[in-house]
């Protein structure tokens, strides 16, 4: 079992991730904005952060940077609607510099997300 923090301003995406992860016996905390996520990170030791990149006011990169300063070894998966014309390898090169382990493109495909989360949790 893992404690997972999910950050997404889209309630549908948040619901999909929460339901999928809870079905597998994990504890999932959901936040709809970066500020609430950063506050949660300061009071709870999560095993995994799953965050959207594009959110109003503060974006996912701010959540990632705060998470890495609070817990440098926290594993991170990014959810993103990054244009499909941008090669995933290029996107991951940029995200890897922030400490991101994986990226899942939106719209979320539950099987893909489940596979990525499992891979990150197993890799430790």
Describe the protein.
- The protein is of the alpha/beta class.
- Helices cover 48% and strands 20% of the residues.
- It has helices at 11-23, 34-43, 60-70, 88-98, 110-123; strands spanning 3-7, 27-31, 48-52, 75-80, 102-105.
- A 5-stranded parallel beta sheet has the order 2-1-3-4-5, sandwiched between helices.
- The mean pLDDT is 87.
List keywords for this structure.
single chain; 5-stranded parallel beta sheet; alpha/beta; globular; 5 strands; Rossmann fold; 124 residues
- Helical fraction: 40-55%
The residue-averaged pLDDT reads 87
Number of domains: 1
General form? globular
Order of strands in the sheet with the most strands? 2-1-3-4-5
What's the gist of this structure?
The protein is an alpha/beta fold. 48% of the residues lie in helices and 20% in strands. The chain has a five-stranded parallel β-sheet, sandwiched between helices.
Topology:
Elements: E1 3-7, H1 11-23, E2 27-31, H2 34-43, E3 48-52, H3 60-70, E4 75-80, H4 88-98, E5 102-105, H5 110-123
Parallel strand pairs: 1-2, 1-3, 3-4, 4-5
């Amino acid at each position: 079992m893992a404690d997972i923090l999910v950050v997404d301003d889209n309630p549908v995406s948040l619901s999909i991730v929460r339901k999928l992860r809870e079905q597998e016996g994990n504890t999932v905390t959901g936040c709809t904005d970066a500020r609430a996520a950063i506050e949660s990170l300061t009071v709870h030791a999560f095993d995994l952060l799953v965050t959207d990149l594009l959110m109003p006011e503060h974006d996912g990169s701010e959540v990632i940077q705060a998470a890495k300063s609070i817990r440098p070894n926290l594993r991170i998966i990014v959810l993103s609607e990054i244009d499909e014309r941008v090669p995933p390898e290029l996107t991951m090169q940029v995200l890897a510099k922030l400490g991101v382990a994986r990226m899942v493109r939106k719209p979320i495909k539950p099987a893909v997300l489940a596979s990525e989360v499992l891979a990150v949790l197993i890799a430790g």
